[in-house]
Amino acid sequence: MAFWTYMLRCSDGRYYTGHTDDLEHRIGQHQSGQGSQFTRRRLPVTLVWSEAFSSRIEALEAERIVGGWSRAKKEAMIAGNWSSVSHFARPPRERFSTSACPERLPSQAVEGLETNGCGGDEFRGEDAS
Questions:
Q1: For the segment 38-81, what is each residue's pLDDT rounded down to a tens digit?
Q2: Which CATH number characterizes residue 55's domain?
Q3: Helix axes of 82-89 and 71-79: crossing angle, nearest 10 degrees
Q4: Which SUPFAM superfamilies match (predicted)?
Q5: Which domain holds residue 38?
């Protein structure tokens, strides 16, 4: 018997994550207003993602994990964009580790206000040399 973790997109754009042992029946319940209170108030709902598991415990754990993800990470998974899922799995401060502007300590001088001291000349169309 398969157990499913699934995600619905509600009419207000929010996502609902759940698990079941009968995906077709459960989606029908949600769509007819007999599902959770969350989806009942946000009809219609659309199935946007599902995955089968071999045990209820695995499906429940997947529901807990996926339900806790950010909207951006959920949307990357729905789109099948696994590099973005991996990107959004990192803490925000680690997502953009490379920068054209080197980090400075607050005590370091700022060269210009327009660009916070990083590359101001090329943004004004002036030659930096």
A1: 999 999 999 999 999 999 999 999 999 999 999 999 999 999 98
A2: 3.40.1440
A3: 160
A4: GIY-YIG endonuclease
A5: 3-93
User: Locate tokens 């090329």: which residue?
Assistant: 122
State how far the Cα of 23 lies from the Cα of 80, in Å rounded to an integer: 20
Burial of 56 from C-beta contacts in 10 A (0-12 / 13-18 / 19+): middle
pTM: 0.70
Strands of 3-9's sheet, edge to edge?
15-20, 3-9, 46-53
For residue 76 the two structure tokens come to: 């990357």
Q: In this structure, are residues 7 and 16 in contact, taking their beta carbons and an 8 Å threshold?
A: yes
Report yes or no on 128 lying in a domain: no
Assess if residue 32 is contained within a domain. yes
Q: Residue 7: inside a domain, yes or no?
A: yes
